[in-house]
Design goal:
65% helix, Arc Repressor Mutant, subunit A, mainly alpha, 8% strand, 192 residues
């Protein structure tokens, strides 16, 4: 769990504890002390009106409970921000694994700006939460089906297809950008 999430939880706990203490100190103790002689219906009504519905009491409520509420809401926001950052980091990690198929832990860590230990933690988190298949062996992370090792013949065919075009008269493969076919001598139109 990240330090940001710990901070958010700490803010939440401190906020709720402070709200509880404020209620006890500002309202429960004075009520019990004022009602030591006996609590009647009129006494409770008058005490409630003086405690909650006068201008000084409203100012007291605003100065005590609004900042505590903001502290609690800020803690919740920090927790959500931490979760969002972790999800984004996991998506980046999965994207790297899919892009490379086979990559070392050190390379992943450098690309993400993390330590190797943090990268391993993210990988463990991904493995526990998502349906993503990968293995870690000898410092390499391998995602089956996404590895970029292709047979040499396939690489040559792809290269040929990308850098050559077929002559529309004789079908010979000619270098892209040529104006004349070396096989049949036909002139080729250059597309702009």
């Amino acid at each position: 769990m990240s330090g940001l999430r710990h901070l958010g939880r700490l803010m939440n706990v401190v906020g709720w504890v402070a709200v509880g203490l404020a209620i006890v100190i500002l309202y429960i103790f004075p009520f019990v002390q004022a009602g030591a002689d006996g609590i009647t219906r009129d006494f409770a009504y008058n005490w409630m009106m003086q405690t909650f519905f006068t201008v000084p009491s409203i100012i007291q409520i605003l100065t005590v409970f609004v900042p505590l509420g903001l502290l609690i809401l800020s803690g919740k926001y920090v927790i959500e921000l931490s979760i969002e950052r972790e999800l984004r980091r996991e998506e980046q990690l999965i994207g790297l694994l899919r892009a490379y198929g086979r990559i070392s832990l050190v390379d992943i860590s450098n690309r993400l700006g993390l330590s190797v230990l943090d990268t391993e933690r993210y990988l463990a988190s991904i493995r526990g939460k998502r349906d993503v298949v990968f293995s870690i062996s000898n410092g390499m992370v391998i995602m089956p089906g996404f590895e970029r090792s292709r047979p040499v013949k396939e690489i040559e065919r792809i290269t040929r297809e990308v850098v050559t075009i077929a002559c529309r008269y004789c079908g010979a493969l000619i270098p892209m950008g040529s104006t004349i076919c070396p096989e049949c001598g036909a002139g080729l139109k250059v597309r702009a």
